[in-house]
Amino acid sequence: MTLYDQVKDIPMFKHFSEDEKRSFVEMEHAMQVFSKDNIIIKEGDRFTSLYVLIKGSILITKTGYNTPISKLSPGAVFGEMSFLTKKPRYSNVIANEEVMVMKMDDEFFRKIKSEIKDKIKDYLIEILINRLDTMNESLSKISRSATISTLK
């Protein structure tokens, strides 16, 4: 399977033209491979790269917790909070198997066209809105449960 075949159906690229997808694949400096148990991001790190998981799965962990917070599959975007806020990393990201990621750092963004930057920005906004909706729904359920518990 070619690199293009691996990225063409990733959700972040759904609004990209075929030429734009191919231009991503040609930016080989952005592709990184990690072996199982390699740390991709360490909690507290100050670098602010954004990543897209191309192949494999990763675990999101938090120092002091024994179980992973989340497991992400190909197509997942991670590192977006530090990328957007420039704050230290909130969690660890560990390769659950051999993984390939696309690292989007300052050099990457200097090399891409502004139309592509805008599409990435729009996708990040979409992700954050979906997460906010999910969080609001969860808080609403917790609030209802707490209200019912206090009425009993």
Element layout with pairings:
Elements: H1 3-7, H2 18-25, E1 31-34, E2 39-41, E3 50-55, E4 58-61, E5 70-72, E6 77-78, H3 80-85, E7 92-95, E8 99-104, H4 106-111, H5 114-151
Antiparallel strand pairs: 1-8, 2-7, 3-6, 3-8, 4-5, 4-7
The rounded Rg comes to 18 Å
The portion of residues forming beta strands comes to 15-25%
Question: How many structural domains?
Answer: 1
> End-to-end distance, in Å?
59 Å
SSE sequence, one letter per element: HHEEEEEEHEEHH
CATH class label: Mainly Beta
Unreliable residue runs: none
Task: Please outline the major beta sheet.
Answer: 4 strands, antiparallel
Identify the overall geometry.
globular
CATH superfamily: Jelly Rolls
Helix content: 40-55%
The count of β-strands is 8
What this model shows, in words?
The protein has a four-stranded antiparallel beta sheet. It has a four-stranded antiparallel beta sheet with strand order 2-7-4-5, with no helix packed on it. The chain has a single domain, classed as Jelly Rolls, CATH 2.60.120. It has five helices and eight strands, in the order H-H-E-E-E-E-E-E-H-E-E-H-H. It has helices at 3-7, 18-25, 80-85, 106-111, 114-151, and strands at residues 31-34, 39-41, 50-55, 58-61, 70-72, 77-78, 92-95, 99-104. Strand 4 (58-61) and strand 5 (70-72) form a beta hairpin. The protein starts with a helix and ends with a helix. The protein has 152 residues and is α+β, with helices and mostly antiparallel strands. 41% of the residues lie in helices and 21% in strands. The protein is globular, with a radius of gyration of 18 Å.
